Amino acid sequence: MNARYARFTGLVVGFSVGQWIGRAVRERVANAAPPGLIDWGRAREIAINFSGGVRLVAEERERAREQYRHFVEELVPAVAEFIGVPAPEGVSRLYVFDRIDWIDANLESFAEILRPLEALIHLPDHPLARMGALLWTYLGRSAATVEIGMALGFLSRRVLGQYDIAVLGREPVSTGKLYFVEPNVRWVVRAWQLPELDFRRWLVLHEVTHAFEFETNDWLRDYVNGLIRQWVESLRRDVSVGRRIVEAVRAAARGQLRDELSWIELLMTGEQREIFRSLQAVMAVIEGYSNYVMRAVGRTQLPSYDVIERRLEERERMRTPVEQLVLRLTGLDIKLEQYRRGEAFCRAVVERYGAEGLRSLWSSPSAFPRYEELGDPDAWYRRVAGSVGTG
User: Fold this and answer.
1) I want to staple 287 with a disulfide (CB 3.0 to 4.6 A). Which of 138, 270, 330, 339 is the partner?
2) How do the domains of the chain map onto residue ranges?
3) CA distance 190 to 168
């Protein structure tokens, strides 16, 4: 009798506690706001862990800044003469970063780009459906947070320099900033036995060329930001991405993936793919033109230019399997390939139509090559020659 009473009492107590917990959970679920797409604090922690957490002390930072500033003053006139335009103001906004500085600067950019998508998250009213939606939302948020953190941590170990254009008007400024990630520069110099001073000049030359591109062509920053806004807006309107993910997985399982599309493009609508390829074409030309100018000027200014170029190409070929995997998962391998296409495009234009033909790029947004024209510079030239008065 006592045992049966104890079991009965236990059931009653358990049921009561369960009811209380269930009611508390339902109230929490009913009042729960949807989480953001990314846990930015957690993403930062992950990125810093992957970065190795390397820090600079104030004296190191200031010493490196003065050296980079000296090289900027030395090389800007040569770039201005080659391109045929005055030196822009943005080359004076120069910062020396460690890896954590770089992560923080780029987390801010990512957050600005993704902020419009936060409004996409809606939860149903029914408690059970709401609970399930919350679970999936948190799972998706966790996966996205890890991916952002890993990607930024990985890049923070590889990026040497960056020209920041203040994406989507993040700052009320009209010029960009030059960043140099000093710990990575030191590591590359040591690991690849590069001539240190010439390598720092090489790096300055590359980033300064980006400053010329954006700050001597007033429309370029707005054009790039406009494409990013279109991309984000197309994502905001997208309600069928889940179905496309399932279809892409099934196609991969059946070996029916389309060779001309990257895995990222398989998850896009036709509109998103068109904007994505426009962005690819723009960034390919920006990087390709920068490389073209850097090579031409670098060979006249840097005695060790050919040695530096050869060793950096070896560095790119000797990526570890982990690096190759991260590049594929993040889509950065697509970016690197497009940069190579962009430089090949610029070289082909100069060879066939001269430097004036290449300057046609900067006349207006419509003069930029379309995605398919990256592999057909003659088609690009026929399209734009009449409108810009060349040929």
Assistant:
1) 339
2) 1-31, 32-237+269-388
3) 37
Distance in angstroms (rounded) separating the CA atoms of residues 301 and 250:
54
Sheet holding 161-164, edge to edge: 94-97, 177-181, 161-164
Strand partners, 95: 179
pLDDT of residue 390: 44
Cβ neighbours for 338, distance < 8 A, ≥ 6 positions apart: 280, 281, 283, 284, 287, 374
Closest CA to 303 of 390, 199, 203: 199
Would you say residue 85 has pLDDT above 70?
yes
| This prediction's pTM | 0.76
Most trustworthy range by pLDDT among 172-176, 277-281, 345-349: 345-349
Locus of tokens 């090559």: 369
Contacts of 183 (CB under 8 A, 6+ apart): 54, 56, 98, 99
Q: What is the largest CA-CA distance in the chain?
A: 104
Total residues found in the chain within this entry: 391
What is the band of 339 on the pLDDT scale with cuts at 50, 70, 90? confident
The predicted pLDDT at position 264 comes to 60
